[in-house]
Amino acid sequence: MGISHSSDPSQQFSQMLQLQPYASSLATQVNDRHFHSPNKSEDIMNSRDQAAPEDDPLSELITTYNELNGAFIEELDEEPSPLEFMRYVARNTPFVVRGAASSWQSNKTWDKEYLLRVFKDQTVNVAVTPFGNADAPTDHEGNVVFAKPHEEDQDFEEFLNYVINQEKSKDTASEVRYAQTQSQKTTNPQTPPENDNLRNEYLPLFTHVPPSIPFARIALDRDPDAINLWIGASRSVTALHKDNYENIYVQVRGRKHFVLLPPCCHPCVNETALAPATYSRRGEKDGELALNMDRPEGSEGSEGSEAERGEGDEGEETATSNTIPFATWDPDQPQVNATPYSHLAEPVRVTLEPGDMLYLPAMWYHKVSQSCPEDGEGFVLAVNYWYDMEFSGPLYPLSAFVRNVSLKTAPATSKGKTT
């Protein structure tokens, strides 16, 4: 049985389903100023609050996936062999290895005292936002925009002490600082920049971690494109998004809390074309942060690198549209800004403790929050390895197909508007 060349994407998708089934905690930390507040985006919510029929092809896809896989994550007692790992990659299925990195030098050494000694009198790049909402949908003057952080170089000791003091004092009013890899100066948010800061900015720490994860290097037959270090505290939350990388994530200090959705859940996440905006300081060095719209491409003072962020990983949005396609549904607030398919999503939740290792497959949506134990030092630190995904197999084109069908069959909305 073959697939007919129908021009109707839904009919094509239904025929594909006949050929094969497509199967391959922490309380929400959301500030009311973010896009996810219940009184925002009412026009979008009202146009999408009707559930899709059960026999809808996209509904069948998501339901079938849930029935075959379940909303849980496999926990391994030890690192997989390369062959075992390749089976997970082939199935596009996450897993966690408890304590896999407990013996790493990083997990034995990287406390506050050591970090301050190594980076004494050195500056690092820091993302600064008012609410911990770097690279996130955010309300701005009646519209929803993609808010990028203000970036500045700060003395490392000043940065780390600020993070720790804010966490321990339970300060929820001051600006949030986060050492992250998603530099706005590199590329678009759906294709992560290869910042590789552990082999550059934080090079003195690199010898304390493996240069590659052995089972991943052998199975994937490649070295990591980037090895990244992340330092922050509980007020920093990474909004729901996906990456074109096989991701090995290792927790060093504090806890990370992941909410995961498989690629077939694109119809659930309410992808919306958002205009980009960037936080900047008003006046002096420590001035108040203000959110300003980015200049469209070709306008006076614009930069090509900003316009290039408008092209998503499936290429649906282009630089000329000056928008960024981004998920605007929050699985921790499922009734807000939902699509007709959002109720079908069954998020997988996992918390990483120090020494734990997570395999996050390519194209999986993930929202990440973090917390510090009461007896901890007041900061969260993690390292991750990005391995480029294999684009030539079925995963990428099928994911793009689901996305295209979802976008073409979605009800008309006033995207990027709030009431």
TrEMBL record:
Residues 33-46, 281-298 have a biased composition (Basic and acidic residues). Pfam families: Cupin_8. Residues 188-396 form the JmjC domain. Residues 33-55, 171-197, 280-335 are annotated as: Disordered. Residues 179-189 have a biased composition (Polar residues). InterPro entries: Cupin_8, JmjC_dom, RmlC-like_jellyroll. This is Phospholipase A2. It comes from Colletotrichum lupini.
